[in-house]
Amino acid sequence: MISKRRLIVTLTLLLASGFLLTSLASYYASLNSLRVRIDDNELPLTSDTIYSEIQRDLLQPLFISSLMASDTFLREWVTEGEQHADKVVRYLNEIKQRYGTVTSFFVSDHTYHYYYADGILKTVSADEPRDVWYFRVRDMQQDYEINVDPDMANHDSMTIFINYRVKDYQDQFIGATGVGLTVSAVKNLIENYQQNYQRTIFFVDPQGVLTLAGKEFPTSITSLADIEGLSAHRDQLLNEQQNTLVYQRNGETFHLNTRYISEFGWYLMVEQSEEPMLRQIRLTLLINVAICFTVTFIVIILTQMTINRYQKRLEEMALTDKLTRIANRQAIDLHLQQLFKEQQRHQVPFSVILFDLDNFKQINDTHGHIAGDAVLQNIANIVTTELRDCDVVGRWGGEEFLVLLKHCQLDDALKRAESIRLAIQSYAIGFEEQTLYTTASFGVVEYRDQDDHNTLLKRADQALYIAKQNGKNRCEVIAQL
CB-based contacts of 314: which residues, under 8 Å, 6+ apart? Predict the structure, then answer.
């Protein structure tokens, strides 16, 4: 009787302890999964959607501006001496009324008159800071630009302008035309997303000054420096095209995703607290503990096996680049640290190759991001086949790759880099019945005495910069700083 009771107590304690440990492991795995989901999926998806909405809203005014720039009436009116200004004023007013724009305008390169729907607003001048945009448009190569400026004709309200170059029949620049849209549409989009997805969305300029936010954003906050938890990371956030950040504020964990909107010259900031989702995870933990006394030992083992598999998958995800299936930056950093240790113990020489795909943005812009992903995957395969078993290649950034060459001095590393360069240059990448080609620029350095992690990579980055400056699709070396 005593033995049976002791067995029951022992089994009860074992079952309870096992399920408690399993539940705790599940809690932390879910917490980690929650953070990965926020950082890798939810916040970037919100950012991408807002960016897509902005681009969609800009398509129609861009089309209108293109029509205005090629309108025979406008061009002939200018070339005939800009007589009867009321004609172009009526024309601009009709554009504004027909398409519902905030403003429509034309600036003549002959008279510098700024015409809009109500007449002549002013005469632009190169010495006037508010007129810098016109002289920038006059000198640029592309047909149009999109920028955000105060609109003098609408009480300096922030307006999205489509500035389009106008040329005469001899292809000579004669002025700039276009339309303006209010930023209120973007503001409404911000508020809708904040309400529907419990995220804080705002824009800042390259100096970190708040430019646009929803109605509920605190009025006391005017820049990143005023936001607790973000002020210390201001330079990091404003020096990269995209970024993710996890930080604390008032004891609460927040996640931030940033994206540079080149059309505006602003940074889109999407912030989310993990506390609402974390409460659900904690509740789940309590339920798991409560039911642990009613489930069987088999369920415990199956649950533990599932958690183990899941944790193994998380570890693999943490060290492998999801797209290219090679080492990610965290993994390549660990390999580099190991090389430093081996060099210090056994004086093992090693070299580093940092290379960057040339004109990769053009591939994305021309063929789409799926094509860009295919290029990155193929480049990873090409480099892997060119390396020895003891070498390591990893994705260092968007289209940047870092190669670690153990037992390799500078001359051999340069040969290896040249071999990879030629392989990339000659490789035909098939994508949707198309054949894509690309090239890469290489920076090659060897470990030198007194080198540390930062100085070694700095030399590699400088060598890569020199390769880019010298025409791309080449290898450059730097022996010492």
Answer: 29, 32, 33, 36
